[in-house]
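Dear colleague,

Following up on Tuesday's group meeting, I ran the structure prediction for the two-component complex that the binding team flagged. I've pasted the input sequences exactly as they went in, so you can double-check that nothing got truncated or mislabelled along the way. The structure tokens for the whole assembly follow below. Feel free to forward this to whoever is handling the docking comparison.

Inputs:
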Amino acid sequence: MSKFPNQLALVSVVGVSAIALAVGLSERAAHKAELAAHDAEMAAAHHAEATAESVVEHAAEEETATAEVADAAAPAGEDTELADAGMSAAEEAPAAEAAPVAVTAAAVDGATDMLDGAGDTGRMAGDDSAAPMGPFGLGRPALPEEVAAWDVDILPDGTGLPAGEGDVWTGEEVFADNCAVCHGDFAEGVDNWPKLAGGMDTLDHEDPLKTVGSYWPYLSTVFDYVRRSMPFGAAQTMSDDDVYAITAYILYSNDLVDDDFVLSKETFFDVEMPNAGGFIIDDRAETELPLFSQEPCMENCKESVEITKHVLFKDPIPVEEGEEEAAAEPAPALEATETAAVQAPADEAPAEEVAAEEEAPVAAEEAAVPQEAIDPELVAAGERVFKKCKACHQVGESAKNKVGPILNGVVGRSVGTGADFKYSKVMVEAGSGGMVWDDATLAGYLEAPKKFLKGNKMAFAGLKKEADTAAIIAFLKAHP
Amino acid sequence: MTTKQKGKGASRRQFLTGAAAAGAGAVAAATAKAAGPDPLITELQDWATGMGAGVDETPYGLPIEFESDVVRRNVEWLTADTISSINFTPIHALDGTITPQGCAFERHHSGAISMRKEDYRLMINGLVDQPLVFTYEDLERFPRENRIYFCECAANSGMEWAGAQLNGAQFTHGMIHNMEYSGVSLRTLLNEAGVKPEGKWVYVEGADASSNGRSIPIEKALDDCLVAFKANGEALRMEHGYPARLVVPGWEGNMWVKWLRRIEITEVAVESREETSKYTDTLEDGTSRKWTWEMDAKSVITAPSPQAPIRHGKGPLVITGLAWSGRGAITGVDVTIDGGKTWQKARLGAPGQSKAMTRFYLDINWNGEEMLLQSRARDETGYIQPTKDQLREVRGLNSIYHNNGIQTWWVNADGEAENVEIS
């Protein structure tokens, strides 16, 4: 809006920066003073607005050029840093003081613009009935429903726990349906996915196993995380009862509760987390900083030097397709076991043969894939929707079986017959019973995976929009 | 996603087994005196006679095709999948200090989400006078700051605790980037809502499905944190939190919440998953440090290094690298070429800036003999980057995070480098 924003910015800070410069604040000190100064700064801006009318009159008389009052209320970022804490007194300063400051800058424009500006910020300047807003009057009050929708975190003392309850046996079922595909039926973890149970008393060993039972200090964290972030790819879709049940089952898997345990707000603190006392607050300032602040040696520091360890993987990217199948696979640094040491090879059980192996190839079904032209736009839309699936499924030339099977050629294929993938029993049975993935079966499955084939392993809530389902099917057809 | 280095990998193996000795000789010859006129000079080249590309050929330019190997890379076996995973900045191939957004490392807990500015909402709630909701447009109306900071994942170099594992600066030290951020001071936003006196912590949370959340003490939140919407002058990339992310200068990258959607003022830390079960450092006796937020002073030689071998033979050689500290400015970097018998002060590309990367150089006349290269950073607090063994002495081998130990590259007479540890 302003033609001369920088100049205008001076309006609200000119007096303030003079003080700061006179005191000669260093950048750091100025930075620290910024917080305190900020309130003062904004108060000054507020006053500038509140007195807009008098400024208008004054300015109009002087016929000084340039700007608009709305801008006068906006201080420049850099200049505010010079503001001195002493200006907090401006809060109490009479409104009259603000006007001269503004006029000194000789940067105020004609009456029309100014009145507009005052109108824009009227919420702050004039409306006493409005909720109290901050110095800039930006944003709007958050509604209680909005806060309730987003503020779902659980504090260590249980604050935020919802009503509801869940027992171990319900938990086992819900876990099997939603979690076991990555975390294993017994929370023991699949591939590199996190193990949730076990590892007791391993924290002082080489390669400790950190699980909910062996490591997590607060039960609140488990509930909070499961409710907010799980299951992977369908976060925030489970009921509070289910989250209680899953949490109860994880505790049971760690031998922390009996099989008749029911978790709720009331029983939450009956559970003792074994590693609750296992943490200390960062003590590097005492244990490391003095040690690592000694003047270092520059010359004749050692007699001889020997190489003690060579790199484990000579190629920058250690595992390449089809070769060097990790004789010794280093442990993941991030999500899984989180140890940096070299582990024994992950004993990857050879993919179990599915029952369908004996069956004849699906030649008969080939007719089911009509050679229809696939709408490229629909395919592109499908690619976007496929992001929801990518956590578990891959397509394309280099696709591999992950948590879910490769989906190349899935359209027209007998259910449960992707190569080298271990399907659930119901999938295999459906395939042997003659079910083929076509438009109708895919649509049904994608809409409600759990209902369509009860007992299958796919932990996905389903696609709500028919358009998304159509797009995905087109996308899959484009990957024969 | 994963870019394989098939060709390069193979040639590196040849080098390492000595099979490429002839190749190395040829490289050396190229730097010797020209045997005859250079056809690149004596013959008319296409580019010197025809026409180049017109304007608008690429409305938003990408690096030239000859630099196509300067890309982020991941290491597949580190994580279960690429959705909740990390990749690495190609620091071995960059110079200066600013990391271009397009090759700056990514870490997602539930994938990078694509959100329109129009759909962006930022809520401040909890112990405040007035819970507020801001739109992206609102954020743009607050006074803005520009600051350069590094962002380093706490797990950077984490794979190297037990010994040298990955062969390349990109993989040992590439979970870091350094950008110029434009945004609003978090303090300004908090003041807008009015923090109540009992508010001691700020819980920040992202809008993606992982809902990554971290607790930050109010002192830090009011000190130098930013809600940033531009990096290196342009909008944040999707993978870095478009349209707005938190910047927590000098502190571990996990706290730099992307797609920032909520800021809650609390009396106590939330003790979320990412600040209890992860990003805590287990010591030798089994106890674990929590709230290890600052990233200690650290440095690495980016070239020569395993992915950036010396191809020109002996003679003038530029040794260069990066240094940074989460506790302040880098005040000096020492470099050794003999495995730490003697050290020399490196030249800083520019004076160190607080919590930002510093480039260093050591210009030497290489005699063509093998070298054991190390760099050692010092920051304004007087802290000197320790050796890996010094760190292990204090923490044991299970710490995972915050490995800022000195890195060693063994450069052989052919100019090839390897990640090693030395006595």
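Chain B touches chain A through 127 residues (CB under 8 Å).

Cheers,
M.
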